[in-house]
Amino acid sequence: MKAFSITKLFWITFGVLFIGSIIWSIIFETIMPLIRANAIDELILNIVGIPVILAGTIIFIRGGWIFFRDVYSLMDTEEIQVNIDIIRAKSDPQTIKQARRKNIILLWQSWKPGLKQLAWGFFLIAVGGMGINLLKILGQDQIF
């Protein structure tokens, strides 16, 4: 069994405190004032919209992580290194063009998974934000 390191303890503590502060802020700075103001419509929209925004944020961060992980791991592959060597050797223009094209294709393939997650995360953040502000967008005082 692996020993529990102080670094792991630090990151777990940091994560708990960070997530706890976000939940604290949501409850005491958003939900409670809406309950006190008896703004039930806004309360419902926030109860639905805030988790959507948080999910979008998590997906967005994960997408960024995947993007950088895949790009950096791509640089260790033999195929891309061979293409880089061909480009640096300054051989004939057609060979260089083919090597660059292959590298662009490989780069695009490594970008796609991360970019998809970044896009979905952004979409969810936008939908959640619009959901929270639906009354203002529609110019109404009540929905329900």
Characterization of the model:
- The protein is mainly alpha-helical and 144 residues long.
- 85% of the residues lie in helices and 0% in strands.
- Helix 2 runs antiparallel to helix 4 and helix 3 (78-89) crosses helix 4.
- It is elongated, with a radius of gyration of 24 Å.
Describe the secondary-structure layout.
Layout: H1 6-36, H2 40-74, H3 78-89, H4 93-132, H5 134-138
Helix pairs in contact: 1-2, 2-4, 3-4
Question: Which structural traits does this protein have?
Answer:
single chain; 144 residues; mainly alpha; 5 helices; 0% strand
Low-confidence stretches: none
Provide the residue-averaged pLDDT: 90
User: What is the total tally of β strands?
Assistant: 0
Structural class: mainly alpha
In terms of quaternary structure, what is this?
single chain
How far apart the termini lie comes to 55 Å
General form: elongated
User: What's the alpha carbon Rg, rounded to whole Å?
Assistant: 24 Å
Level of helix content? Answer: over 70%
Beta-strand percentage range: under 5%
Total helices: the number is 5
Sheet of most strands: none
User: What sequence of helices (H) and strands (E) makes up the elements?
Assistant: HHHHH
Short overview:
The protein is mainly α and 144 residues long. The protein has five helices and no strands.
